[in-house]
Amino acid sequence: MAQAHCVQVDPAFVQAPEHRPKAAISDADGVPLVDLSPLFSDSAGDTIPATLLSQVEVACRDWGFFQVINHGVPLEVLKKAEAAEKKFFALPEEEKLKVRRDGANRFGYYESEHTKNVRDWKRIFDFVLQERLDVTGLVLKNRWPEVPLDFRESIEEYAKCVEKLAFIVLELISLALNLPPKRLNAFFEEQTTFVRLNHYPPCPYPDLALGVGHHKDSGALTVLYQDSVGGLDVKRQSDGEWVRVKPIPNSFVINVGGIIQVWSNDKYLSAEHRVSVNTERDRFSIPFFFNPASNIDVRPLPELVDDRNPGKYKEYNWGEFFKRRMDSDFKKLEVENIQIDHFKRA
């Protein structure tokens, strides 16, 4: 049994020594900040400013992470969703367990999420944008709590607004890749996108546990709203060092996912990231995992490969990949969870 301050720690939470956070971590210098206000100004037309596209290109290429401000999501919507999230997690545990997810349906409340087979120090609530029984056998059905009374309305309104932002960012990335702006949109007609509410309680073992272990997101994009507490760490691509993404009020963090990495044929890389815990303060965040339809077969886009730059990945089915990742998040497995690197050509 691992020890911390003479108190026994559940070994399920203990990270391997090489993945444990350092006592001190520096704020990230240079995490790109992209101002989207030109897209919403009265003078905005069909032409995207070249400087904006250049900023997106550099951010995706050099970091795989960037923050956006003046993004078009109303402040009132953000604050209502944040308040609803805090009310839900403040409920007695027995009330939250009424909407607990299970092996048949992976959406709802859960207190035992795993990342790379190590338990995360957090509690979550997941819901999907489009409910259905998926062709993969994955049940995409929401469980809504009876209280708080405004919970569902507040977070569904948030999801609709952030979905619009996700499509805006997707089109900017498409243009940055020298593709038509809506080249990727059709992949999301029957999307498997889901939204997660994260609560990270104070943790007395910051040297052993993580709120979320090191990982790369497997979908297309993640659009994250976080509070002021901080804790999101990204591995800087230039030197492999972990750095803290400093929260900017009312901003979103955009994270390039594995699907964009494959579609771009490694021009844009998904960044490895994690969440460090806080010993004194609760932390809350709301990531929007923007995922395509389950019948989409993911491979490098034909416009971005040629004889001099052949495709670096074998084709894989997103629905099957997504189901396997959901299975590994639900419980500890005896094998490594599925990664896009498993489809990399030699």
Automatic annotation (TrEMBL):
What residues form the membrane-spanning segments? none
Gene Ontology MF: a single term:
oxidoreductase activity
For this entry, the protein name equals 2-oxoglutarate (2OG) and Fe(II)-dependent oxygenase superfamily protein
Q: Where is the Fe2OG dioxygenase domain?
A: 191-292
| Keywords recorded for this protein, A-Z | Iron, Metal-binding, Oxidoreductase
Family indicated by similarity? Belongs to the iron/ascorbate-dependent oxidoreductase family.
> Which cofactor(s) does the record list?
L-ascorbate
UniProt cross-references to InterPro entries, sorted A to Z: DIOX_N, IPNS-like_FE2OG_OXY, IPNS-like_sf, Iron_ascorbate_oxido_reductase, Oxoglu/Fe-dep_dioxygenase_dom
